[in-house]
Specification:
mainly alpha, 12 helices
């Protein structure tokens, strides 16, 4: 597999990640009208596994999906699974603007973890991209944070776990293929969520099943795109591109749900875009490659 560093290839795979997460947000809003979050996550994992089967067979069958880093696979998916639950729980405790603002501290934790455990180096372009992205997100959501409460702590915990999950994906790409990482995500998270999903199960309507299938596809292959992006660039380059998800979601809300975009939202989006362009144009800094 070609592992030659390439920022354009990383950006292309991240475009796939962003598009699918944009669709996922819309599908999630619609599906949650009928089903519990545990059921949603379980169906996503189970259907995602089924969707992966043709690709697995093409790559040599299930025997080719073996991994020598099962502990890291389990740890990554435990972090991802708990982070998703915490994020949804935080939405019920504090305003969504605060949740989103806190969630987008995630690149900070990813950068710190990647630098500390993967040997990645920070340069001016990476730091500036993170700073501008955070400022842009705060301008867009304009959180009215006063004192820290339980909801804010839960959202912060979710952001830290999301960052840990992405840092672990970066490490896994050194030894495991993107397909293998996505395969184990479906398996492990299906196991984690099985019993709660059975307990909360409600049979969806045709409309509900449609959105669950969309969620399964986007929830599965978005992670494949992220893993591929990590293959071509450092996590500290890839992750700040995710800031674009906020203005893109704002545009989708305007087009689909008639949610208005004001001047501050446009300013925040411009800062995010500018930070990502600086990041893509900044000189590459070599980093040690893990052989574990």
């Amino acid at each position: 597999m070609d592992r030659t560093p390439s920022k354009p290839k990383a950006a292309l795979w991240m475009a796939g990640w962003l598009l699918q997460l944009l669709v996922l947000a819309i599908a999630g809003r619609e599906a949650m009208r009928e089903v519990n979050v545990f059921q949603l996550m379980e169906v996503r994992s189970a259907l995602g596994f089924v969707m992966l089967i043709p690709f697995i067979l093409q790559q040599g069958g299930f025997a080719s999906m073996g991994t020598t880093r099962m502990r890291l696979q389990v740890g990554r998916n435990a972090a991802q699974f708990i982070a998703q639950l915490a994020w949804f729980l935080a939405l019920t405790l504090i305003p969504i603007g605060e949740v989103v603002a806190i969630e987008f501290t995630m690149p900070i934790w990813t950068a710190i973890l990647a630098a500390g455990f993967l040997g990645e180096r920070m340069n001016t372009g990476k730091v500036l991209a993170i700073v501008l992205g955070l400022v842009g997100v705060i301008i867009i959501v304009r959180p009215g944070v006063s004192t820290v409460n339980h909801g804010q702590l839960i959202a912060l915990g979710a952001a830290i776990l999301f960052g840990a999950s992405i840092a672990m994906v970066k490490s896994l790409t050194q030894t495991d293929s993107s397909l293998k990482i996505t395969f184990w995500m479906s398996i492990i998270q299906s196991v984690f969520g099985l019993l709660p999903a059975i307990y909360f199960w409600v049979w969806p309507s045709f409309h509900g099943w449609f959105w669950l299938i969309v969620i399964a596809f986007c929830g599965t292959f978005s992670h494949y795109c992220m893993a591929r992006a990590m293959l071509y660039a450092d996590a500290t380059i890839v992750v700040p591109m995710d800031f674009l998800r906020v203005p893109l979601t704002a545009i989708a809300g305007w087009l689909i749900y008639n949610e208005q975009i004001d001047l501050l939202t446009a300013l925040g989006a411009a800062l995010i875009l500018f930070g990502n362009l600086l990041n893509l144009r900044s000189p590459s800094v070599s980093s040690p490659r893990s052989t574990q």
